[in-house]
Amino acid sequence: xxxxxxxxxxxxxxxxxxxxxxxxxxxxxxxxxxxxxxxxxxxxxxxxxxxxxxxxxxxxxxxxxxxxxxxxxxxxxxxxxxxxxxxxxxxxxxxxxxxxxxxxxxxxxxxxxxxxxxxxxxxxxxxxxxxxxxxxxxxxxxxxxxxxxxxxxxxxxxxxxxxxxxxxxxxxxxxxxxxxxxxxxxxxxxxxxxxxxxxxxxxxxxxxxxxxxxxxxxxxxxxxxxxxxxxxxxxxxxxxxxxxxxxxxxxxxxxxxxxxxxxxxxxxxxxxxxxxxxxxxxxxxxxxxxxxxxxxxxxxxxxxxxxxxxxxxxxxxxxxxxxxxxxxxxxxxxxxxxxxxxxxxxxxxxxxxxxxxxxxxxxxxxxxxxxxxxxxxxxxxxxxxxxxxxxxxxxxxxxxxxxxxxxxxxxxxxxxxxxxxxxxxxxxx
Length: 429
Prior knowledge:
Elements: E1 3-6, H1 10-21, H2 28-44, H3 46-57, H4 70-79, H5 82-100, E2 107-110, E3 115-123, E4 126-130, H6 139-152, E5 156-160, H7 171-180, E6 184-186, H8 190-199, E7 209-211, H9 216-225, E8 230-231, E9 239-244, H10 250-261, E10 268-273, H11 276-290, H12 296-306, E11 307-311, H13 315-325, E12 329-333, E13 349-352, H14 358-363, E14 389-397, H15 399-415, H16 419-426
Parallel strand pairs: 1-11, 4-5, 4-7, 5-6, 7-8, 9-10, 9-12, 10-11, 12-13
Antiparallel strand pairs: 2-3, 3-14
Helix pairs in contact: 2-3, 2-8, 2-9, 3-8, 4-7, 5-6, 5-7, 6-7, 8-9, 10-11, 15-16
């Protein structure tokens, strides 16, 4: 079911290449469909939005029923289990506390000669959060996308999610959004919802940024509207990479690998270890645990295509290989996990120690679980406060400070052949 290979083998190199090159987004047929939907929304607004909702979701959407009402929010609280509501509240509080620490302030620094430089930090005015619909509900993703925006000070946070045929939204999704602090929830989904957020319709306001996960239609739509609005990222399949030694518990390690393999057939789960014994035990545990899991078929295909147990000779080799993969989730299950931290260059989130499993980060720890995938942890970061703010530079010069740099500016401008730039300074000298 899963390969055990040695570091440096051609099979191992190919696996890394396959993981970094896998993509669900190279689909010309779907892209053409998405582009058509976006064009219709731009030209016809609500008319096209309502028609696509009727076509794809089977619901007769109108101006009067597009918004989730206060009554529907109250009903959702009655439906959702009270214990789950308290867990959502606890998770929200921890996520909020973590993201509060990410806040940065505006600053202004004067100098003695009348020069003043600084930076103005402002939240985005309006953000759109996409939440998938269907039978599955992911309240944790609702919290992770809305709470940082709220902490950042975004004035208007709108959420879109596809309705069922009766016009209902998953009650857990509604409760999580309300606890997180959403301002409005619209009953629209798919590429048409992304287009509505990007360009605005009579009912749905144009936003500054669109965040949140979705299927291939949503992902391609987000990619297509980037530039008209900002987006968080175009997420790829999930990944976990575990570095472990003889101190690791094979049952724990196998369970953690399976926690990501169950997402979909393109998910990647890799163990890198210095221990042949652990490699063998984890291989056996994977088979034993998979046999009793509900998503058995998905897990088996995921492990077969993008799973591996890789034996290395040293921690240096383990860290070098991990940095090449740049995993979304990385666990260090060794006797002294913090000693390896300085060697980790590329990872979305790093989980240290035998009792810090990846699902802890998904739900309750506090750091954001929206992480870079597909090797993009080499240059992207987890979703954070920074995704919901913008920065402006501040400059103020007195006559004395201006003249101290005037000749230098003229020299620079002339070197670039921009004489009007030079003249703007020259007339003041």
